[in-house]
Amino acid sequence: MSTVFTRAREFVFEQGRPLDRARLRFHFESGPARTVLDELVSYQNDDGGFGHALEPDLRTPVSSAVATWCAGTVLHEIGAGAAEPLVRRAVGYLVDTYDAAERRWWIVAPETEDSPRAPWWTYADIGATFNDCVLNPTAGLAGVLWEYRELVPPALLAELTETVLTRLEDGVARTSGLDRGELTAAELFLQARNLPEAARRRALAALRRAAAQRVENRPEAWTEYLLQPLDVAHTPDSPLSSAVDQASIAANLDYLQDRQLPDGSWPLTWSWAEVDADAWRLAERDAKGTLAVDRLLTLRAYGRI
């Protein structure tokens, strides 16, 4: 393996969370999926939802939709099955907390205010910050439910799917398009293993348009919290890769390799140190460990490591 991999691996094993060490072993060293699940369950609460800073910028132990979405991405990447008790509890939490009247999940709970957090997780401002949560996190969590459709009432899936697709198409048509969080949530929906092909085609058409509108192709802007080409084209065969200019993908790969820090991690494009410096140090370390594994997966997919 390249020095990029070696340095990143050292960072994950020295400073990353046990969960991300297990993810790295799973993806690069034939580590068992069971170890990933065993680490993930430590973030799950009795209600089936996830908390305990699984989303690093949200330090509350209380279950939230966004932390459960984070768990869903891990379950997807290791191919966890519906028979897993952890999965069954998570799906139960999502079914129980779904707001059927509004057809959405509220992204965090009021108890968020009681723990350190990034300012964008202020509960009182959530509606304005996340466009009333109609796509973020709702589209992503709909994807989690499709992943485990056998555990979900069919009527709920049908209603939720049409709602998400309509909102996606409406969102792409609006002047501002989809924002980064909405697009990321919709990707999880698009990639759900059991999503019907007709729904996948509609989602893909909308998201290709959204990605072309939202991706930032200027290298000088990549130090900011923007959607970079590889945030969409994670691998050459990612569903949205065709929406991104190939020259921008190549430049972004060069950028990633050049931006690796001496400790093996990559710099983050956000910070809330001014709000709570001590909590931010923990969140930054945790987020960098997760990001390091994600970066290695992308670099390997493109033959860069």
Task: List unreliable stretches of 5+ residues.
Answer: none
The number of distinct helices, counting runs of at least 4 residues, comes to 13
Query: What is the radius of gyration computed over CA atoms, rounded to a whole number of angstroms?
Result: 18 Å
Q: What does the main sheet amount to?
A: none
Provide the structure class. mainly alpha
Identify the overall geometry: globular
Mean pLDDT over all positions: 96
What portion of residues belong to β-strands? under 5%
Query: How many DSSP-defined strands?
Result: 0
Order of helices and strands: HHHHHHHHHHHHH
Query: Residue share in helices?
Result: 40-55%
Task: State the end-to-end CA separation.
Answer: 6 Å
Can I get a quick summary?
54% of the residues lie in helices and 0% in strands. By secondary structure, it is an all-alpha fold.
